[in-house]
Amino acid sequence: METVRFEELELYPQVLRAVTEMGFEEATPIQAKSIPAVMSGQDVIGQAQTGTGKTASFGIPLLHKVEPHSKKTQAIVLCPTRELAIQVSNEIRNLAKYMHGIKILPVYGGQEISKQIRSLKGGAQIIIGTPGRVMDHLRRKTIRCDHVNTIVLDEADEMLNMGFREDIETVLEYLPEERQVVLFSATMPKAILDITKKYQKDAITIKVVKKELTVPSIEQYYYDVKRKDKVDILTRLLDYYDPKLSLVFCNTKRMVDELTSELQGRGYFAEGLHGDMKQTQRDRVMKSFRNGKAEILIATDVAARGIDVDDVEAVFNYDLPQDDEYYVHRIGRTGRAGRTGRAFSFVKGKEVYKLKEIQRYCKTKILAQPIPSAKDVTNVKAEKIMDHIGQIIEEEDLSKAINMIEDQVNHSDYTAMDIAAAFLVEALGMLEKEAGKQDNFEFEDTGAEEGMVRLFINIGKKDHVKPGNILGAVAGESGMPGELVGTIDMFDKYTFVEVPKEYGAAVMTAMKKAKIKGKSVNIEPANSR
Ligand SMILES: Nc1ncnc2c1ncn2[C@@H]1O[C@H](COP(=O)(O)OP(=O)(O)OP(=O)(O)O)[C@@H](O)[C@H]1O
Ligand SMILES: [Mg+2]
Asked: What residue stretches are annotated with the Helicase C-terminal domain (predicted)?
């Protein structure tokens, strides 16, 4: 398709200036087609892939449609999540930077309503909000709709889905008969298209057609992963690919919480995000993800739609999404605005069929991929260290250090090569300690109780050791609740302890460092003893 420059779209000079300042050079295909259509006042359904600039596709025309001299509310944009309402409002504010007298206000749940009411009193021509809170203001008459001539549903298919449909209908009832209804999304399932007729008149459909629904610059892989191995494989992939920012999707809030503390415990800069958190906390997490302080965001689908954060280089489906559409939106958090990205999905057993279904829906291929080995991770780390070293050699004054090494070489049997190699081992070792806090152990079935594994402990001479000492060491060192420790069988020279399977590896790792009655212990999985 021919490229269209923003100059050709007859924008206000103030808007053109803002667009240029935001670094947009050409209009994306969806922008080129839908900016004129939305400006003309027609009802529009716009569909284009994730990260292709749909926000400006409706944001720019809204700025052209509002009358800045009237303080009345003239346009409403509805978004499915609070984070998206904030983001869309910021993007439109950026576009409006050089237009005077236009106020753009986000209103969403979890934010103090009295504060919102005060802001609304000042008059805002464009309101961007979540349906529940907008409805609330309409009922209180703190938002008045008599002059609203445009309503936009961002993520329209989600908004017209069962969870939101009633709210949307209520909001629409408040609007004047003569109004423009604009819908945008990366996905438009047929069932939803059927019901859009109820809300729109002679809508034109602008679909930027591509072969596949997902963005081609996102590499998509899957791993067949047992539940218990998921965390290890996730950290392996994080270490290997070392993405600047990553987004990890789980299907439940509980899983988000669990995985967040697991990764934090292993030393990763990870934060969780889900709907049960307080809004102030959600805001804090989003802020630290946007500024890169949190490198890994672990979230429910609350972060799946619309969220635009630079430098998200990898998306993980820790759990496979329930709906095909959600796969498209989740992985679309990377590979935005022409960038590349990677998407990794974990599947177990029968979920492979679900994955096939997703590929059919998206018309894309998700490839099986071997898990990088620990050695692969070491290699990429060594490469990174060598890159860094190269940079130091290029940029720093090394004369003092060279003198010191020369001294070493002259006064020992070591060559300069020995010394350099030892430095590399030291640097890698330090990294390894950070990355591999938990060793992997194979537990064989040794007739332990259901869900338990049997560990063999040898503390050498065991004159004064009592079951209580063992219990204290196992529970105390590993952080496992003591009441979970199963049977402790003490024999003449050795002891068997049963612990829940999921704590097996943690106990083993912890006990290697533990002492019982001042003595180091020897611990291993009980096999055929
Ligand atoms: N013409 C353009 N040139 C370069 N960058 C652009 C252009 N238009 C928008 N962008 C930038 O591209 C990114 C993605 O835009 P946006 O969030 O609007 O995508 P989207 O199509 O709404 O995606 P999603 O379906 O995920 O909601 C944003 O950072 C935006 O500022
Ligand atoms: Mg969007």
From this structure: 217-378
Ligand nearest to the CA of 187: 1
> 251-270, pLDDT tens digit by residue?
999 999 999 999 999 899 99
Is 125 within the bounds of a domain? Answer: yes
At 458, which CATH number? 3.30.70.330
Report the atom number in ligand 1 closest to the C-alpha of 333.
26
Regarding the beta carbon of 28 and ligand 1, being less than 6 Å apart is answered yes
Q: Indicate the number of domains in the chain.
A: 4
**Residues 6 or more apart whose Cβ sits within 8 Å of residue 241:** 313, 314, 342
- Out of 207, 235, 255, a domain closes at 207
- Residue that terminates a domain, selected from 207, 236, 254: 207
What is the distance between the alpha carbons of residues 216 and 343, in angstroms, rounded to a whole number? 11
Is 60 part of a structural domain of the chain? yes
Which three-class secondary structure state does DSSP give residue 220?
strand
Place of tokens 């944001």: 59
Which ligand 1 atom minimizes the distance to the CA of 26?
A: 1
Helix (H) or strand (E) holding 497: strand 495-500
From residue 196, give the alpha-carbon distance in Å to each of 163, 189, 506: 16, 11, 53
Give yes or no: residues 48 and 175 share one domain: yes
Q: Does the interface predicted TM-score (ipTM) exceed 0.90?
A: yes
Q: How far is the CA of 53 from the centre of ligand 1 (A)?
A: 3
In a domain, 109, yes or no: yes
CB 31 within 8 A of CB 57: yes
pTM of the model: 0.81
- Alpha-carbon distances of 110 from 86, 130, 363, 374, rounded to whole Å: 12, 11, 39, 44
The boundaries of the domain holding residue 400 are 375-427
| DSSP string computed for 141-183 | TSS--TT--EEEEETHHHHTSHHHHHHHHHHHHHS-SS-EEEE
